[in-house]
Design a protein that fits this description.
Layout (H helix, E strand, L loop, with lengths): L14 E3 L6 E3 L1 E4 L10 H13 L4 E3 L10 H14 L7 E6 L14 H15 L4 E6 L8 H13 L3 E7 L3 H13 L4 E7 L11 H8 L2 E5 L20 H4 L11 H16 L4 H10 L6 E4 L4 H8 L9 H11 L3
Parallel strand pairs: 3-4, 3-10, 4-5, 5-6, 6-7, 7-8, 8-9, 9-10
Antiparallel strand pairs: 1-2
Helix pairs in contact: 1-2, 3-4, 4-5, 5-6, 8-11
Bound molecules: NADPH dihydro-nicotinamide-adenine-dinucleotide phosphate.
The site of NADPH dihydro-nicotinamide-adenine-dinucleotide phosphate has 31 residues, from strand 10 and helix 10.
Length: 331
């Protein structure tokens, strides 16, 4: 189990400053929502993590409830950090979140100070870490004053248990308010994590502008629409795919003919550009002005390597962008 990372790991990777902060993030980060839980193959998961680090991916994204079972992705990541990556902790950005249901009772979810700070302590214990780099409020809580949730993020940073504060899934108006509250405490909003991909462009309705205005970064989750924007489903639903396993939020019913029509049209554009559909989907997001980075998932090393190609993909001409928009129109 003696891991020594590649000396050339930063040669092909690209970094961008996260909003107006001092923190640079790799334009491609790896998320551990799927494929890294206690029910998954530890050897394969460890291999993906180490290959990612070898390829210059320094940002690993978790949440309290990633698994299954909930918490087990943080445990797995903590194990790999301890046995393989401990010497490189200062080269790694670890993010985690609290907000979705994690333990029974009223404190196991949402955005109270009680819930967020207890969850952060649990995450640190599971990962065997003194601090995480980014701590997120995972979702807005309609019943907790925003001041309380923001206060918990401020406390997490001031106590040294997190270096930076982030929001996830917050709409534009709440993001602006939260950023203003954080700014009064001199704890800037570092980043917002939102679903953003060619099939779901909701952040263009106001959130992207808000992030540019407040100087926060934007990391796009599910940039491949959980695998839909890849060659995974072009030939049907494979048993070993996320939809085939039917374990998460992508199920066979969500792979509609209308979605596949758009996916096939996008795939034709990608082929003509000489790249994979995944690569086109990622490089399109990375070309949007508000976006700092994309947060991909991977069930095997070859997917990660394919996704990394997006870092050196050619830009889009105006004609290509129009063609992509046309391919996305509903029939
Ligand atoms: P993606 O959209 O990148 O989907 C990942 C899946 O797509 C993989 O598991 C794999 O599916 C398939 N895939 C990836 N690359 C390729 C490729 N090159 N060729 C073919 N198939 C490929 O992201 P996720 O939905 O996994 O989300 C990424 C991360 O975002 C999560 O791990 C998590 O960290 C974060 N997230 C945050 C949320 C939030 O609320 N803040 C919500 C959801 C995610 P298969 O397994 O079928 O092989």
């Amino acid at each position: 189990m003696n891991f020594a990372p590649s000396e050339s790991r930063y040669e092909s990777s690209a970094f961008r400053r996260c909003g107006r902060s001092g923190l640079q993030l790799p334009i491609i980060a790896l998320g551990l929502w799927h494929n890294f839980g206690g029910a998954d193959d530890f050897v394969g998961a460890r291999a993906i993590l180490l290959r990612a680090f070898d390829l210059g991916i320094t940002h690993f994204d978790l949440a309290n409830n990633y698994g299954p079972p909930p918490g087990s992705a943080e445990e797995l990541f903590g194990k790999v950090l301890k046995t393989d990556l401990a010497a490189w902790r200062d080269e790694i950005v670890v993010s985690t979140k609290a907000g979705y249901r994690m333990w029974p009772g009223p404190y196991g979810e949402w955005g109270s100070r009680k819930s967020l700070l207890a969850s952060l302590d649990q995450s640190l214990r599971r990962m065997n870490l003194d601090y995480v780099d980014i701590f997120y409020s995972h979702r807005p809580d309609p019943d907790t004053p925003l001041e309380e949730t923001v206060g918990a993020l401020v406390h997490a940073v001031r106590s040294g248990k997190a270096l930076y504060a982030g929001l996830s899934n917050y709409p534009a108006d709440m993001t602006r308010r939260a950023a203003a509250l954080l700014a009064t405490e001199a704890v800037p909003l570092l980043i917002h994590q939102a679903r953003y991909n060619l099939l779901d462009r909701w952040i263009e309705g106001g959130l992207a502008d808000a992030l540019l205005d407040v100087g926060a970064g934007c990391i796009a989750f599910s940039p491949l629409a959980q695998g839909l924007l890849t060659d995974r489903y072009l030939g049907g639903i494979a048993e070993d795919s996320r939809a085939g396993k039917n374990r998460g939020f992508l199920n066979p019913g969500s792979i509609t003919e209308d979605a596949m029509r758009r996916v096939r049209a996008l795939n034709a554009i990608a082929r003509r550009r000489g790249q994979s559909l995944a690569c086109l989907a990622l490089s399109w997001i990375l070309s949007r002005p508000a976006v700092t980075s994309v947060l991909v998932g991977a069930s095997r090393i070859s997917q990660l390597e394919d996704n990394l190609e997006a870092a050196s993909a050619p830009g889009f001409s105006e004609d290509e962008l129009r063609e992509i928009d046309a391919a996305l129109q509903p029939s």
